[in-house]
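Budget justification note: compute hours in this period were largely spent on complex prediction jobs such as the one shown. Inputs:
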Amino acid sequence: MQEPAVALDTGKHWRRLSPVAMLYFIASGLKTLVQNGLYAIPALAIGSQTSNITAASWFIPALWGIAVVMLGSAVLNYFFYHFRVRENHVEIRSGMFSRRHINLPFWRIQNVKVERPFYYRFTRFAVVILDTAGSAKEEANLVAVTHEYAQTLRTQILASRSEYLNQQQNPDAESQTNPDTSSTHTNEQIINTRSVKDLVIHGITNNRVWILLGALAPFFDEMASAVNGYLSQYGLQLEQLAGSQAIAWWQWGLYLTTVTLIIMTIMGLLSIGGALLTYYGYTLSKDKDRYIRRSGLLTQQEVSMRESRIQLVSIKQDWLDKLLKRANVFFEQNKSGQQRDQELMAANKLVVPSVTTAQADELAGHAFSHCTPSNQPYKRLPLFYMLHHALVRLLPLSILLMVLAYTLQQVLGVTLVVIGFVLAVVNLALRYWRWGHTTDSQYLYVRSGCIGIDYRTCPLHKVQQVKYLQSVMMRRRKVASVKVVLASGSLTIPFMAEADAKTLINTLLFETESTRRSWM
Amino acid sequence: MTNKGAIVTPIADDPSFSNAPVATESLPDIWSLETSPVSPRYRWLNLATVAGVFVLLLTLISIFRFQPWIAVPADMQAAYPRICLGLSVIAIVWFGYHVFADLCVRYALREQDIVLHKGLIFKSISCQPILRVQHIELKRGPLERLAGLARLQVYSAGGAGHTFEIPGLPVTRAQQLRQFILNHKELDAK
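Corresponding output:
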């Protein structure tokens, strides 16, 4: 056994964090202030315009007051925060008014995230986020520990977790797992890295604008007025333009296209910026039984996920991805705590952005051995799927709308309804074309999409619950929908042939119940 | 099911593991299952609730219409019969739905899972393997307590939206079911 670089146990004495932690507390204070104050911003903006708050005598002192309160609470938070790690337990005491004492045994910790926010970038500190299966409230953060300590802690926690799980599964195998878990040295194997070029492609094909837009949201109003001011400098008045009769329609069209192009270019650039911000220096590596993703330009993120906890691998290609032959791969695990995060931040998904299609298959095969989603004999849905949706759901509605438009003598309305109907049918046909499902002896494969393609693959035995859905009409036509509930979310295959649906359900249940393998 | 070639088992050194192809006809079938209905009182309770809500609403509106203290605007007076009619139609449809739909709620217990049939026009058959159960709850609202009924809620890791619920069970039956699941050796304790 190699001696770990840093001692893990802190002994029975409570420890205080490094003073750097105050930075973290200030930052999180600011974050909550912005989050809670977001609603107040419009009011403040209007207030500042009408009543000149900024000129008021109390304005500057009030700002100082807020700053002092925040600083003070950061200091207090720091002094009231104690932690200790011993005998495979992490204990944290924190909070000033509402005291909180968390005691987390290592084996109950499902996931460990090591984060280095940008203000820690030039220190040797990191934040360790401990994720439990329970509610979001039970989550615990070790706010400022050295990076080496964080790594040792993470290795130890994940090791004792897998040891615990192994013991649960087969109690006799203890002797086998011990040498594995005691070696804390890592032999990480890099599986995938993303170059800047890949990330630029990712930025173009996936709209990552919201990463930046989210941060800019409070300033929209000012930006709009700045743009207006800039334009009026050059003699363009937007309000005048819109109402003016003097400009021909083609001029209008030209303006509109130019503006749209400019906006799209800016959006594209912003999106590339967002992609680089979150994924710069992306590496996906594997250390024994878990995957580790590291990325980030300013704030470096490290997420790890045990291989056995992956419930679903999905490969997503939208139409631009399809043109460039790229795909995003997601490893999805269970949704603990139920918080609905954006896909990038979501702790339950591990993203590999914009890989080539061959790499996507390789990654899927890596997580689930012998699985090749793009190369399966997919079975189509019955034609009834399309006919039913087109004739029973779309047609009556369209006819109703058409009659309505006709009686109101709206020729334009009638045309719009017809165009809408045709588009919807084309969309339906494309969807019908994409839908496919198949199983081999280990996995369920589902293909779906419209212009793009999604492949989703899950092991047969990781099913939590199955549902067979059939309306009276579907029963007559011998079709049924199947809903497969996984710990990472549910997966529905609509309008399967009834016999297929029944076989699928029986197979899923048989695989789950007869193998008795854990889903975690 | 197609079995594509030889597949290497992921746990190669586990002697108890095998992965022979399974003939689909030999799989246990959840469609050939004998199911039992929930308590008939479940339907009576639902029907009584519908009737009760309807009568309550109608009484409230009528009291408002005919009370002598506040002058009711003329258009509201005119709307009164139409409101009553609309309410009655909704109540009758709702009532009729429960008359038929509640008979469709049926459940079955197998060694390894629980099966629930539901739905009048849109039928659903759900199956919850006991192996995947995280925890169980018996729920009894005030009306259900009055009728001696209970709801059995079975939670899996699939999330709150996929809670498996058998409504309208007689209390003793619900307790028996809960005990059966708790005693099950495959219960997922993690």
